[in-house]
Amino acid sequence: APAMARDTIQIAGSSTVLPFASIVAEEFGNAFSQFNTPVVGSGGSSGGLRQFCQGVGANTIDIANASRAIRDGEVESCASAGVKQILEVQFGYDGIVFASRADKGAFKLEPKHVFAAAAAQVERDGKLVANPYTRWSQVDSSLPNQEIILVIPASNHGTREVFEERVLTPGCQAFDSIKKLDKDAQGKACLDLRQDGRIIEIAGDYTETLARLQAQADAVGVFGLSFYEQNRDRLQVATMNGVTPSLETIGSGEYPVSRPLFFYVKGEHIGVIPGLAQYVEYFLNEQVSGFGSPLEEAGLIPLNDEEREQALAAFKARKAVK
Amino acid sequence: MSNETLSHRSIIQARVAKSLRKRHARERRFRVFGLAAVLAGLAFVALLFISILVRGLPAFWQATITAEVYFDPTLIQLEPRPVPREGETPQAFSEREIAWQSQLTMVNWNRILENSIIALKPELANSRRDVRALFTSSERFHLRDLVGNDPSLIGQRVTLDLVADANVDVWVRGNIDRSLPDSQQQLRPAVRALADELRAEGVLNIKFSKALFTNPDSRSSPASAGLAGAFMGSLFMMLIVIFLAVPVGVASAIYLEEFAPRNKITDLVEVNINNLAAVPSIVFGLLGAAIFINWFRLPLSAPLVGGLVLSLMTLPTVIIATRASLKAVPPSIRHAALALGASRVQAVFHHVLPLAIPGVLTGAIIGVAQALGETAPLLLIGMNAFVANIPTTPFDQSTALPVQIFLWQGNELRNFFEARTSAAIIVLLTMMISLNALAIWLRKKFERRW
Amino acid sequence: MSARSVRVFYSEVEAIKGIDLDIMENEVIAFIGPSGCGKSTFLRTLNRMNDTIEDCRVEGTVTLDGQDIYDPSLDVVMLRAQVGMVFQKPNPFPKSIYDNVAYGPKLHGLARGRGDLDEIVENSLRRAGLWDEVKDRLDKPGTGLSGGQQQRLCIARAIAVSPEVILMDEPCSALDPIATAKIEELIDELSSQYSIAIVTHSMQQAARVSDRTAYFHLGELIEVNNTEKVFTQPDHHLTEAYITGRFG
Amino acid sequence: MSARSVRVFYSEVEAIKGIDLDIMENEVIAFIGPSGCGKSTFLRTLNRMNDTIEDCRVEGTVTLDGQDIYDPSLDVVMLRAQVGMVFQKPNPFPKSIYDNVAYGPKLHGLARGRGDLDEIVENSLRRAGLWDEVKDRLDKPGTGLSGGQQQRLCIARAIAVSPEVILMDEPCSALDPIATAKIEELIDELSSQYSIAIVTHSMQQAARVSDRTAYFHLGELIEVNNTEKVFTQPDHHLTEAYITGRFG
Amino acid sequence: MNNLTLIAGLLMLMAVAYQIGLMRSRAVARTDSERMHSRPVYYGWLVALWCGVPALFVFGLWSLLEPAVIRSIVIGALPAELADMPAQQVSVLMNRLGHIASGFGVAGEVAPWEAAAAEQLTRLQAISQLAKIALMASLAMAGVLMARRHIRPSLRARNHVEKVIAALLAICAGVAVLTTVGIVFSMFGEAMHFFSFVSPMEFFFGTTWNPRFSTTGAGGQGEFGLLPLLWGTLMVSIIALLVAVPIGLMTAIYMAEYAPSWLRSVAKPVIEVLAGIPTIVYGVFALMVVGPFFASVGDMLGIQIRATSALTAGFVMGVMIIPFVSSLSDDIITQVPQSLRDGSLGLGATRSETIRQVVLPAALPGIVGAFLLAASRAIGETMIVVLAAGNSPVLHANPLEAVSTVTVTIVNQLTGDTDFASPQSLVAFALGLTLFVITLALNVVALYIVRKYREQYD
Ligand SMILES: Nc1ncnc2c1ncn2[C@@H]1O[C@H](COP(=O)(O)OP(=O)(O)OP(=O)(O)O)[C@@H](O)[C@H]1O
Ligand SMILES: Nc1ncnc2c1ncn2[C@@H]1O[C@H](COP(=O)(O)OP(=O)(O)OP(=O)(O)O)[C@@H](O)[C@H]1O
Ligand SMILES: [Mg+2]
Ligand SMILES: [Mg+2]
């Protein structure tokens, strides 16, 4: 007999995906009385995949949530532990927004503004100098005359990568003197942040970012779209390149700062853990994760119908990550 | 006595007298500092409790809609609940049962909910979406379960207390600034107006809510999120700690105090135990993840693993407390027993241990209380999961009370969950203080002076 | 019982420096001497209570009825049932008076059934002269008695297992004069059935209760003789100096 | 100093039942009596060390140089500087020998500068007969001395504040005979400058060191007289019974 | 029959064996003239132990060895062409076979040779199980019979049973040691793995903590300097001690030396409540009440005080360890013998003089020990810092600014989104090990001091 059979789907991983997965799990449990409500653990994308790749069996998880794609090294280490059929499911996007306190000035940001405010070195008269800016209005006169304090996710967050790739890097490309540098130096110049206390890295969750903003009125913080939406009474969102972040603008790709959200299903467990396949299919149902679904209400940017069909088809075909 | 010594003494007396005023002043200052320190300690306790009570108590009351629900047979078209047929395999029966359950779930319960308000305000018949927004989303399952348990309700009218949506609760209580423009509000203007109207009419009330105590956590329906799951998880872990850490700890203490020879090895064990008592709890989390989950392959997120980790963590506390109370038993008792021809084991188990029991119990309770409040190691063994079931065995996945607090304080619905978090803290503190009071009571009751 | 060239060491310190002494049947022998001279230590070697002190080592032989009590094959439990001990501070168990006395017999399985046990308890308490005072409250805790009663309870407890020898280490030093007198009386009575070795710091007490007296000095046995002899014409000048109060 | 109808209560228990006693200048008075008769309690009423015991209450008057020491306006600090005390177990502070002796003078501001203090320390140690033994290791901890030396250190510490009266509660009971002899010698010398009240459980010691002896019994002062008289022809039969060893 | 029922069955057998021993010893006592050495219960226990212990021992040994033996048999029987698989693959294969055998899911088709091997596995397991039960049962029986035969008056049953009891107690004491071994073991491997990415020099002496999210690309894996974290830990702990030590110590002094007993009996338990409050509660309290309070005080004074800062976390942590300091100090102060107080008071010292100049110096080593223990508490505390310190791993000396500590970083790195085999998350284990070593050192020092102090009065 299987050592300690398990009949509850076990999920773990990214804390960004957690709310969405939890809602689906709860609805799934309610909708299918023959299945238990799946358990959704947290632990970050890393922690989730670590558990996922621990092997096959009742004491390993069935699904890992991730706010990033699985990496090759992780696939390898999965395989060496016997997890060979990793089914990747992308189910939507997470919008990342800049927001400031509702009672302070409104920001109309561009990547180069953020870069100029945050970088260790900025271009001044064609030369790279240590960042001299102390107020947003010095960066660009269209910005409010507020002290520069930028609250960003720390490097243990997946959001940080998006922030670097979608904001800082494009932002620094706007400056000629950086473009001229060789590739390595360019990367460094783009990602090196000032260390004078104006950049605050948050290793915890968005609640902490919000607390920061409450303590420091001038600060601008990085949030997930869903978090912002639940706290609209305290926050106002900044536009990026003139685009206001919303489900539509992010879904259409107009608003540039977003990232795909995934979960990974352990093929070996399908058919063993009751309801696993049904859960995935339920998740990809339009009623659940499409437009107008509870997930959208909770802040997920859904896939469009075509993408969702594809994802579902790929899952049904059991197309594994190589 | 010579005059010389006399005068010498009077000089000395004069000097002593001279020093006195300053010394007494210093004495008084010192005493005031001491009193101030005690008062500061008491003030911290008071401050902490008041601030948490003020924040948390309101969360025990929740916006509740009291309405007459009509279980409309035209909406609930349901076959009778299947009963086992003769000669039917259990599997076939359970399939029929599941089919019936699905049918039950498919009923449009939301409509029934909406109708309960529309019956009061027919003018809303065209804004069902606004009406639905009043209720927290799990209320539809509440209705489903009512009918599932008692199909005879179909066709009846029942007055029910229905939990309002979290945002409605926030709005009617003024936990969000009511003067904010629409763009900054969570609720649509129509829903806000409706909520205010119902409030004025007495349909929507702030009522004491059992949800917090009877429900497990919920994400899709925050207003019905409760502590029952976390409570059971904590309970199982406490039981494991009681049945593991306490006996093993007491046994270790007895060995070390009464039997172990005094040598380098026992010295090392002693240092080791004292050190374990101070090892950061988070390190025990790393230990639990590596040993119990990866090595022994125990289930994830289970109170079993949490209990084991917490047991290891509590072990030194129990050992140290037990040793202290064994030490406090006067040697004369041991000698009396030994001199009557009792063996060492008999002396310990007949006399010393029974006398040490109050101390052992106190130590055990304090250890258990400590385990009950621990969070950090649980984060590393997957107990910070979202679990929508109430666990029924220590092998079922669950969270724990302190972890639930941690999860709730990070919930994005700040306006709602700040109070909820404090309410959860009140529950946890109540348990904690009861345990501590029990310990103090035991200590008082059995306090013995030799 | 008899001791032959007994030496006792605490770690490396020699507390008893080769003592030969016999305790006869049904006699009361008193050990006197200045503080720290090793009276208690010697007494404790006689029922191996020294075993409980970690770094205490005994050399020489002590025999009880011809059996070496330090023989590894000997069970110390047996020995202690035969050689009882009463301590300086009364140390009743925090249990009922009955249980205090019944503990030893129960331990050694001396009683067949409840009636038997009751009898043993009553007998022991009677012999300890405590029966009349406690017979109505046998189920009350022994710690609730007065100091003198407690000490007699401890004696009752010791005789309940029918020892051959009873060792007493300053049994009266924590008691008031009246209680002391009672205990002394009791010792007198018991001496018809048991050998009793008693340590005392009061020479008067030694003179009152003992048949023979042994004088210890810095770990050595200076003199042992009939009590009257020791107190009237001691053989050794140290004994004399102590007796006459030149020190101590 | 003199005590008039002094009663001392512990909670409701009367430990001293009305005692009148005078301590003359430069005399040594010994308090003897069976255990628990209140010797220590009475001694401690003389410098109000009883204050430190929570539920202890004193009635009657005790005067020092005509001043009532229980007068609320009197400063107990002052009193204790005048009436020093030496305890049963030597209790040197865990500090250097020098600091032990200098503690009192420093506290009361008796020394003007370091040289003055050195002198006081040396003087006190000399008078306590300890100077020659410790003069080379004044900075070593006082706890490192032998028991007898420690007790003399405590005496030196007491006389460093030049008291009028020194109270000693069984100062030799924890010491061996040789150390005891030294202390007794010291008491003899000190008696030329201080009044000394000494509690002892050894009648021999009382006989050796004291000018007068007071016999206590169950909280009452039975008899006080010249030592010789008390030991040879006591007035009271209780005293006689005690002296001749009929109890205690 | 699974292992649990097996053990339960054995326990039942032992109960029977106990009765057998009891009855036998009574019978012997009746017939034999010599007095039995021990009471009957001990003979009962002895028989029960003989019944249970050898069988349990075999059970343990069997469970330990069984998998390896079966595994080697199964591997031996595999088709020849699979013979020289690398060890890694063998274990994957064995896993797979195990899953096939148990009916757990497997990916892909099951090859015929796999099915055969799995079947063999099942068979072997069944045989082994049967053999185990048979062996245990016969050992138990044999034990009972043998022990029963040996019951006679001279058998020192009590001594034997007591030896087993003592051994059992010793084993329990061993659990604590095993825990330490487990802690080191569970962190050492991963920590070494981490050091294969980052040199220990860089880790222990680096002054920048700035791990990058990715392991590739510009800037590489980032910098893993421990010092900012250590400094943050130190700063928070120092603030905590600055709060807790004066208040705790003065509380202890007041309670021990001055307070009337009614105040003591009220205030002591109330203050001890502080020790029982879960740290998560302190964390939330710090975040919601203390932090904003400090920030607004800062506003009033015109200085920048962050709501989440070293000060907030340290202060709240200090409040948390007040009872820790006060009850330890209280114990130590009351342990100072009354004779020392009497000595000082008898010389005419006031009470505070006695306390400051005699009691405290005498108790000092013990108190220092208590402080060190409190400090190790502070260093290891996690949840307060997670919520209230602000997580800013930068070297700076301003307590009004945010800091980060070792414990928080462990949580963050382990529960973040980074690659789990990368130094970014492996660093957590190196940090855990470091923390363990630090608290170990503190404790050893504290214990040493406390012990040395104790010897003074004994
Ligand atoms: N447990 C021990 N460890 C080390 N030395 C000890 C121990 N017990 C006693 N001693 C030493 O052995 C010697 C004899 O001690 P013992 O207690 O036998 O004396 P005693 O004659 O009973 O004295 P007292 O009349 O004070 O009871 C003393 O020097 C004492 O310090
Ligand atoms: N702190 C106290 N609280 C209550 N009762 C006490 C206290 N100290 C002493 N007593 C009681 O007061 C009475 C006298 O005690 P005290 O210590 O003065 O006797 P003593 O003559 O010094 O005896 P010993 O020779 O044993 O030292 C005794 O009955 C004792 O039990
Ligand atoms: Mg002795
Ligand atoms: Mg006394």
Automatic annotation (TrEMBL), chain B:
<feature type="transmembrane region" description="Helical">
    <location>
        <begin position="423"/>
        <end position="442"/>
    </location>
</feature>
<comment type="similarity">
    <text>Belongs to the binding-protein-dependent transport system permease family. CysTW subfamily.</text>
</comment>
<dbReference type="InterPro" id="IPR005672">
    <property type="entry name" value="Phosphate_PstA"/>
</dbReference>
<feature type="transmembrane region" description="Helical">
    <location>
        <begin position="302"/>
        <end position="326"/>
    </location>
</feature>
<keyword id="KW-1003">Cell membrane</keyword>
<feature type="transmembrane region" description="Helical">
    <location>
        <begin position="227"/>
        <end position="256"/>
    </location>
</feature>
<feature type="domain" description="ABC transmembrane type-1">
    <location>
        <begin position="231"/>
        <end position="439"/>
    </location>
</feature>
<dbReference type="InterPro" id="IPR035906">
    <property type="entry name" value="MetI-like_sf"/>
</dbReference>
<keyword id="KW-0812">Transmembrane</keyword>
<keyword id="KW-1133">Transmembrane helix</keyword>
<feature type="transmembrane region" description="Helical">
    <location>
        <begin position="30"/>
        <end position="54"/>
    </location>
</feature>
<feature type="transmembrane region" description="Helical">
    <location>
        <begin position="276"/>
        <end position="296"/>
    </location>
</feature>
<dbReference type="Pfam" id="PF00528">
    <property type="entry name" value="BPD_transp_1"/>
</dbReference>
<protein>
    <recommendedName>
        <fullName>Phosphate transport system permease protein PstA</fullName>
    </recommendedName>
</protein>
<dbReference type="InterPro" id="IPR000515">
    <property type="entry name" value="MetI-like"/>
</dbReference>
UniProtKB/TrEMBL annotation, chains C, D:
<dbReference type="InterPro" id="IPR005670">
    <property type="entry name" value="PstB-like"/>
</dbReference>
<dbReference type="GO" id="GO:0005524">
    <property type="term" value="F:ATP binding"/>
</dbReference>
<keyword id="KW-0813">Transport</keyword>
<keyword id="KW-0067">ATP-binding</keyword>
<keyword id="KW-0547">Nucleotide-binding</keyword>
<keyword id="KW-0592">Phosphate transport</keyword>
<dbReference type="InterPro" id="IPR003439">
    <property type="entry name" value="ABC_transporter-like_ATP-bd"/>
</dbReference>
<feature type="domain" description="ABC transporter">
    <location>
        <begin position="1"/>
        <end position="243"/>
    </location>
</feature>
<dbReference type="InterPro" id="IPR017871">
    <property type="entry name" value="ABC_transporter-like_CS"/>
</dbReference>
<dbReference type="Pfam" id="PF00005">
    <property type="entry name" value="ABC_tran"/>
</dbReference>
<dbReference type="InterPro" id="IPR003593">
    <property type="entry name" value="AAA+_ATPase"/>
</dbReference>
<protein>
    <submittedName>
        <fullName>Phosphate ABC transporter ATP-binding protein PstB</fullName>
    </submittedName>
</protein>
<dbReference type="InterPro" id="IPR027417">
    <property type="entry name" value="P-loop_NTPase"/>
</dbReference>
TrEMBL record, chain E:
<comment type="function">
    <text>Part of the binding-protein-dependent transport system for phosphate; probably responsible for the translocation of the substrate across the membrane.</text>
</comment>
<feature type="transmembrane region" description="Helical">
    <location>
        <begin position="273"/>
        <end position="295"/>
    </location>
</feature>
<keyword id="KW-0812">Transmembrane</keyword>
<keyword id="KW-0813">Transport</keyword>
<protein>
    <recommendedName>
        <fullName>Phosphate transport system permease protein</fullName>
    </recommendedName>
</protein>
<dbReference type="Pfam" id="PF00528">
    <property type="entry name" value="BPD_transp_1"/>
</dbReference>
<feature type="transmembrane region" description="Helical">
    <location>
        <begin position="43"/>
        <end position="65"/>
    </location>
</feature>
<comment type="similarity">
    <text>Belongs to the binding-protein-dependent transport system permease family. CysTW subfamily.</text>
</comment>
<keyword id="KW-0592">Phosphate transport</keyword>
<feature type="transmembrane region" description="Helical">
    <location>
        <begin position="126"/>
        <end position="145"/>
    </location>
</feature>
<feature type="transmembrane region" description="Helical">
    <location>
        <begin position="358"/>
        <end position="379"/>
    </location>
</feature>
<dbReference type="Pfam" id="PF12501">
    <property type="entry name" value="DUF3708"/>
</dbReference>
<dbReference type="InterPro" id="IPR022182">
    <property type="entry name" value="PstC_N"/>
</dbReference>
<dbReference type="InterPro" id="IPR011864">
    <property type="entry name" value="Phosphate_PstC"/>
</dbReference>
<dbReference type="InterPro" id="IPR000515">
    <property type="entry name" value="MetI-like"/>
</dbReference>
